[in-house]
Amino acid sequence: MNLTLLRQPALWIAAAALCVCWVLPAHAVRIKDIATFSGVRDNQLIGYGLVVGLQGTGDKKDSVFTLSSMKNMMDRMGVGVDASKLKIKNVASVMVTARMPVSAKPGTRLDVTVSSVGDATSLMGGVLLQTALKGVDGKIYSLAQGALTVGGFSAGGRAANSSKNVATVGIIPGGGIVERAIPFEFNQQDNLTLNLRMGDFSTAQQIAERLNGAMGGQYARAVDANSVSMSVPPQYRNNLVPLMASVENLDISPDTAAKVVVDEKTGTVVLGRDVRISRAAVAHGNLQITVQESEQVSQPGPFSQGQTVVTPQTETDVREEQRHLMMVEGATLQELVDGLNAIGATPRDLISILRSLQASGSLHAALEVI
Questions:
Q1: At what angle do helices 201-215 and 240-247 cross, to 10 degrees?
Q2: pLDDT tens across 265-319, in order?
Q3: Rounded to an integer, what distance in angstroms lies between the CA atom of residue 236 and that of residue 216?
Q4: Which end of the chain is more exposed for a tag (fewer CB within 10 A), N or C?
Q5: What is the DSSP letter of 187?
Q6: Is 166 left (phi over 0), alpha (psi -120 to 50) or beta?
Q7: Which DSSP string corresponds to 60-123?
Q8: Where are the domains of the chain?
Q9: pTM value?
Q10: By the 8 A CB rule, do 113 and 174 touch?
């Protein structure tokens, strides 16, 4: 028996496994993590309501809209009251918001967020009365009601108070019930569009090629840097769920432009993996200027008929660190970080250094300040 023939299946299996390893891209991520299907999104709902049952932490007496809302509610219930006699310290006017998925059907439960719009100090222990939630078209899609869950507290007296987190915002898990579905025929689509969260032509083209390779035909094409259009194959017509489940789990290696993001408020600096710096010499030293003001009183001599005068005294002190030139160059992100750390600058000093490097043309990345 020829042993070579017996070893051939094993060789083919090893070669196939090696090919699979070559095909998988480095730093691969799923398409579902960087893109979304057009039309498959949440819809924002909003409504105005009242929270009752508060322990004296509701709106004050001069909250006109709360008084008007209470009177209107009592009138609808057949209780005639004088608005000037109402006590609203246990009631708060609130805005109620929720996010409704496009596939939500009547009876689906939604989480709702309740936020005070008056001068209430806390919503802890309150109960939201039935509130209609409307979409941008003005139609009612959900009704919300229930006891609030508040993740903070606020308490105090005349001289001091204590608080934790925000006590004027609460949530009601499952407090909204969908009453009207959004008119959207999901399975009747002949074309699907993938919208990238971060627009990039290379990534869009890579997604299109990956989809065509997986489906075995020219079904997808990159429309622009942010979207990829895909025709639905005949075998998936009127049954898009298996297709979308397969598409969103395909792996690609996204490509992005080199960027440096700087947050001057906190001194945070984030460098992208493709940021590079050409060879440059950098010297950075801190300059510290101290100004001290003092006043001296000049007293006249006895019987001199003089006047007491105040003379200001100003003292200045200037200190500047002496730093030597440092060579900075980064072919990789690690080399770049090591070079910048060698300068010994703080994150806030690093912002000035990066701006200077960009002005000199040595920083090969977009510098974005937020």
A1: 130
A2: 887 888 887 888 887 777 766 555 556 667 777 777 776 677 777 777 766 665 6
A3: 14
A4: N
A5: G
A6: beta
A7: -TT-HHHHHHHHHHHHHTT----GGG---TTEEEEEEEEEEETT--TT-EEEEEEEE-SS-S--
A8: 42-153+163-178, 185-252, 260-300+309-369
A9: 0.66
A10: no
Residue type at 343? I
Mean pLDDT within 220-224: 93
Domain 185-252 has CATH 1.10.10: no
The token pair that represents 212 in the structure block? 């065509």
Amino acid at 364: H
Q: What is the CA radius of gyration of the chain?
A: 33
Pick from 210, 247, 204: nearest CA to 224 = 204
Q: What are phi and psi of 13, to 5 degrees?
A: -65, -45
Residue with tokens 């078209």: 137
Give yes or no for a contact between 151 and 164, defined as CB atoms under 8 angstroms apart: no
Q: Tokens standing for 330?
A: 């980064």
Distance (Å, rounded) from C-alpha 115 to C-alpha 47? 11
- In the chain, the amino acid numbered 228 is V
Residue 69's nearest CA partner among 137, 117, 124 is 117
